[in-house]
Amino acid sequence: MRHGYFLSCSGEVIDEVLAVFMPAGRSYTGLDQAEVFCHGGRQVVRLVLDEILSAGARPAEPGEFTKLAFLNGRIDLSRAEAVAELIAASTETSYRAGREHLLGSYSGYVEQLRGELLTALADIEAAIDFSEEDTGPVDLGKVQTQLKSIGFKVEQLAASYRGGRIIREGFRIAICGRPNAGKSSLFNLLLEQERALVDPEAGTTRDYLSEWIDLDGFAVNFVDTAGLRESSDRVERKGQSKAKEIIENADLVLWLADVSLPEWQANLADDIRDIGDKRNMLVGNKIDLCSQHQEALPEEIYPLSCVTRDGLERIRKQILDIINVEAPDLTSGQVVTSARHKHCLDLATGAINRAQTGAAGGESVEILAFELREAADHLGEITGQVYTEEILGEIFSRFCVGK
To answer: How far apart are CA 159 and CA 182, in angstroms?
Structure first.
């Protein structure tokens, strides 16, 4: 590390800086690398950068430094992707998932599974290569046992994506119900801000409102939708069509019913057909206007008053309980948060299952070997043992410039 002054090409002092040289093998990229630390501020940084570029350097492509780190063997591909996860982390949970992936236990486990596949493959290929010698036939029963164990572990890892997706993409909650049920009021209460306009007139929400919050370490997306009812208003019908689309893509539906209306139960029986088989919480709003005591509501209905806030904490706690059931245990680090990795694991599972079926049916060892090579290659795509420029381009294009 050296202290000095950064000079322009004409010799003018631009800033007082620190500079460090990191030789190959001891830098982020694994190559010779230098870094200059100047004072913060848009103009200072721009002047220093302009001088560096005028001396022959060029701006890095998105993710280029991390790509070089991968290509030079300093990190594997899944750990390179973890860098982007860590940078993009907006909650404690997403940060912890990215950190565990960066530490390497996840990629180590994938490589362990790939190693088990390659061991099984080696036994089969030995029988192919030395078929004319006295090596004996392949023990297909042993192969089936090996593949059953490996296949189960690969499937279990792929199944972790159900919770891993929540960490990576967030948990989506649609707030739905008939017009004037109090959806926008609940939306504001959950966000703890006046985000949506609230008015006694029914049908005032024509479009949806969407906001992300950090709910106890989880990224949660609340969506306030248009009220669902029969309407001749063209704009309102468009909003309702969008609301049904949001319900379809939601992880949880909060369905509000105005329990101050005499006909609310009959309405609710009709309305929940719009939810279908989506996971839902039924909320009975406006209990402050009811003559009946709130305990009289059916057990499956969560009572709420958006005016007095009665019932709000119970609803918030139930939402967190639902998310926690879905969320994976991050202590092992063996959680899939990438759709690309999930796809690779699914392809590997398919190849392993075909090999298992083939071994049970007396399939030729050449076919078994082909399926196991396919499975091993799909696992290798996760860590970068197997890759193409197209795969790298797709991964690193999502990085921010400078990493």
So the answer is: 37
One-letter amino acid at 170 equals G
pLDDT bucket at 153, cuts 50 / 70 / 90: very high
Instruction: Determine whether domain 92-160+333-386 maps to CATH 1.20.120.430.
Output: yes
- CATH topology for the 167-326 domain: Rossmann fold (3.40.50)
Structure confidence at residue 209 as a pLDDT band (50, 70, 90) = confident
pLDDT of residue 105 exceeding 60:
yes
**Token reading at 76:** 């594997």
Helix (H) or strand (E) holding 140: helix 140-159
How large is the average pLDDT for residues 76-82?
94
How far apart, in whole angstroms, are the C-alpha atoms of residue 256 and residue 105? Answer: 44
User: Whose CA is closest to 372, among 137, 338, 364, 109?
Assistant: 364
Short-list 158, 299, 183, CA closest to 247: 183
CATH topology of domain 2-59: Gyrase A; domain 2 (3.30.1360)
Q: Which residues pair with 302 in a beta bridge?
A: 283
Work out the average pLDDT over 132-138.
56
Q: Write the DSSP assignment of 225-242 as a string of letters.
A: -PPPS----HHHHHHHHH
pLDDT at 294 > cutoff 50: no
| Strand locations in 181-303 (E) | 209-215, 218-224, 252-258, 280-285, 301-303
Give the predicted TM-score (pTM) of the model.
0.81
